[in-house]
Amino acid sequence: MKIEINIENDLKSAVKNGDKNIRDVLRMLISDVKNVKIEKKRELTDEEVLQIVKQNVKRRKDSIEQYTKGKRIDLADKESQELSILQKYMPKQMSEDEIQKIVKEVFKGFKEISSSDFGKIIGLTMKDIKAVADGNTVSRIVKEEMDKVLLK
Fold first, then answer.
1. 1 falls in which pLDDT band (50, 70, 90)?
2. What distance in Å separates the CA atoms of residue 26 and residue 144, rounded to the nearest whole number?
3. Which class is domain 96-150?
4. 3-state secondary structure of 111
5. Cα torsion angle, 64, 69, 71, 72, sign
6. pLDDT for the residue numbered 151
7. How many angstroms separate the Cα of 138 from the Cα of each of 20, 47, 80, 94, 104?
8. Per-residue pLDDT tens for 24-79?
9. Angstrom distance (rounded) from CA 40 to CA 78
10. Where in the chain do CATH 1.10.10 domains reside?
11. Which architecture does CATH list for 2-87?
12. What is the DSSP letter of 112?
């Protein structure tokens, strides 16, 4: 609930200050939160609101990539501005070194590792860090570590 209140307060400030970019991004985010509330027929936890923020961040990153490929720098810049507004609500992300340490700890729980364990390792790793680590980064690090183990 705390994240949602912060977003609503920031929206009020943006409206008062006449900041259209922040206002529009936060209105869209609040709309997404309300839609999920209606769907679930209850208030959302901070973790659920954070998941919605993450989805919006991912959407912006994908758009930036596509607009850049399409040489639409103006649209990519707009998405980048929106992304920076949304990232304010994201918790500090773990570094790759920190993720790597956690992955190595998860590896220690396996007697033998085979390529079929990839999904299990991802699941065990993401269980505790999904809010503070990007899934793509975790997946890449797990693949790299598995390659090291399997190629020995």
1. low
2. 37
3. mainly alpha
4. coil
5. negative
6. 76
7. 35, 19, 23, 10, 12
8. 999 999 999 999 999 999 999 998 999 999 899 999 999 999 999 999 999 999 99
9. 32
10. 96-150
11. Orthogonal Bundle (1.10)
12. S
